[in-house]
Amino acid sequence: MRCLLCWTPERRKSSKKMRGPKAEQSLATFAESFKQKSISEELLRVGNGNISAQIFGFRELAAATQNFRPDFLLGEGGFGRVYKGFLDSSGQVVAVKQLDRNGLQGNREFLVEVFMLSLLHHPNLVNLIGYCADGDQRLLVYEYMPLGSLEDHLLDLSPNKKPLEWNIRMKIAEGAAKGLEYLHDTANPPIIYRDFKSSNILLDEDYNPKLSDFGLAKVGPVGDKSHVSTRVMGTYGYCAPEYASTGRLTTKSDVYSFGVVLLEIITGRRAIDNAKPSSEQNLVTWVQPLFKDRRKFPQIADPMLQGRYPPRALYQALAVAAMCLQAEASTRPLISDVVTALYYLASQTFELDGSSSDPRDTLPPSTATAAESDHGKHVKENQNFDLEPDTSGINKEASQEFHP
């Protein structure tokens, strides 16, 4: 899915904290003032010596990708193409993103990505190795993620491709939420990702997720400010309704986008799929009436799962998604609360024989209900989550397509 204007029809510990006045001044300076000189000069000026990314020459990266051979292509989007490469200098396998000189990502977005990923470090954020800014060439060099994107394993699977198991899906959801939590709660000032979607979640060989593509990331509100006002950018189907209509951006905008992706993980459906009947093309719109009847929850689950999931885990995952998709931004949970809920879900393993590590899935109905009630009380008191989806705040306006 291309990145475009939203309304166009097309536990918990980080590896390195970015805190303190120096980091805050660097990010604030970069957000407030941008004067293009040369890429390297600008990064040195604004980064105050904190930019750790290597500088590569174009010839070196051309050699690493064997002149950008077509069979080295890993994927492409609105910003350019990504190739697999091999660095002779270090013997490292990398991913090289060559930005389209006529594409959607300009010098500013390029600088944002280099700057953000040089200061932000977390196990659930992709590692930026370096960049190239020779002449009008703009390339980014990342760690290689062998399993590609979440989208590759979740949406429009070929008949011979194995679908993701429920346990893996919850693991990915938890890890992606932790990446957002780091951006919102640890980075100082907070960072709003602004383009959270399944194609931007990359997977390593163990299905550990990492957020990538930070060209649209924005420094969040600081001090007594409640939001930042900005041009509306993102990907159609994932944008929070209040952001699309007003341009007012908050961390809760990312929480809404996370809710859409969590629905994709649960359902195996795209946020927007024009190949489906009109009533099913918008995922949030399609799921809204199904949320209201617990008996219909199995209809929401990805058919490729073939019923291999703990029913209570499905209900609880849908509850998290419903909370994230509330029309009013103020009623959505903090991403830290989402992480807490998903940590619980990811810890409840489900075996292919139908057994579950959650004892309530094997208890007699009356006992299971009582246990669920006790757990629900604990969640409400400590995490502000209900176990059943509350869809009263998901109205038509929140789930419909955006228009100018």
UniProtKB/TrEMBL annotation:
Pfam families cross-referenced by the UniProt entry: Pkinase
Where along the chain is composition biased (Basic and acidic residues)? Answer: 372-383
List cellular component terms (GO): plasma membrane; pollen tube tip
Main localisation, per the record? membrane
**How does the record classify its membrane topology?**
Lipid-anchor
Q: Where in the cell is it found?
A: Cell membrane
Q: Which UniProt keywords apply?
A: ATP-binding, Cell membrane, Kinase, Membrane, Nucleotide-binding, Serine/threonine-protein kinase, Transferase
- What GO terms in the biological process aspect are recorded for it? pollen tube guidance
Q: Which InterPro entries match?
A: Kinase-like_dom_sf (IPR011009), Prot_kinase_dom (IPR000719), Protein_kinase_ATP_BS (IPR017441), Ser/Thr_kinase_AS (IPR008271)
One GO molecular-function annotation for this sequence?
Answer: protein kinase activity
Q: Which residues form the Protein kinase domain?
A: 68-345
Q: Which residues bind ATP?
A: K97
Query: Which PROSITE patterns does this entry report, sorted A to Z?
Result: PROTEIN_KINASE_ATP, PROTEIN_KINASE_DOM, PROTEIN_KINASE_ST
Record region (Disordered): 352-404
Q: Which family does it belong to?
A: Belongs to the protein kinase superfamily. Ser/Thr protein kinase family.
Q: What is this protein called?
A: Protein kinase domain-containing protein
**Biological source species:** Amborella trichopoda
